[in-house]
Design a protein that fits this description.
single chain; 181 residues; alpha+beta; 8-stranded mixed β-sheet; 2 helices; DNA_ligase_ATP-dep_cent; ATP binding; DNA_ligase_ATP-dep_C; DNA ligase (ATP) activity; ligase
């Protein structure tokens, strides 16, 4: 029989130890991206306190004409992007609106954006979510889908809001992910 070396340390949940590292799935393992619509934001914390961070992103639902929240994103942005985004969606501008009836989301962001942009977003995984409504009914009757570790890649100036990813697109990617697992 094979002999195993004794461990130099034991694993303890919720403790940071030099001897144990948490390994997260890399973005590069999923080459898929989604084209999402920024619909709202919160006042940032700490270094990001002057900007909107995180940003709430949505997929479209062409059948109902609604936008379904899928994730909050706060990764991949440059300070320059944060600054121009804050100026674009400054209170009092025509780009800021009151809570829209066509958005499916129970949370209370600090500001709602007029849906007008499409952002390409990378992610590590798609997960079932009790919070987000994206693709609800397509893979689960009571849960929507969300993205783990979303990261902004770029503004898709070549796409209109009508060309953004849909809940069905998200569900297709989720099913592919489940098949690979």
């Amino acid at each position: 029989p094979q002999r195993r070396k004794p461990l130099l340390s034991t694993y303890e949940p919720d403790k940071r130890l030099e001897s144990w590292l948490k390994v997260k799935k890399d973005y590069s393992t999923s080459s898929e991206t989604l084209d999402l619509i920024p619909i709202a934001g919160w006042h940032g914390q700490g270094r990001k306190s002057q900007w909107w961070s995180p940003i709430l992103l949505a997929v479209s639902n062409p059948q109902t004409g609604t936008l379904e929240a899928v994730t909050k994103c706060m990764s991949g942005f440059t300070d320059k992007f944060y600054q121009s985004n804050k100026e674009k969606y400054s209170p009092g501008s025509s780009n800021v609106i009151s809570r829209p009836s066509y958005v499916e989301y129970a949370g209370e962001p600090d500001v709602w954006f007029e849906p007008q942009e499409v952002w390409e977003v990378a992610f590590a995984d798609i997960t079932l979510s009790p919070t987000y409504t994206a693709a609800i009914g397509l893979v689960s009757e009571e849960r929507g889908l969300s993205l783990r570790f979303p990261r902004f890649l770029k503004v898709r100036v070549d796409k209109s809001v009508d060309e953004a990813s849909s809940g069905e697109d998200l569900a297709v990617l989720w099913r592919k992910q489940v098949e690979r697992a």
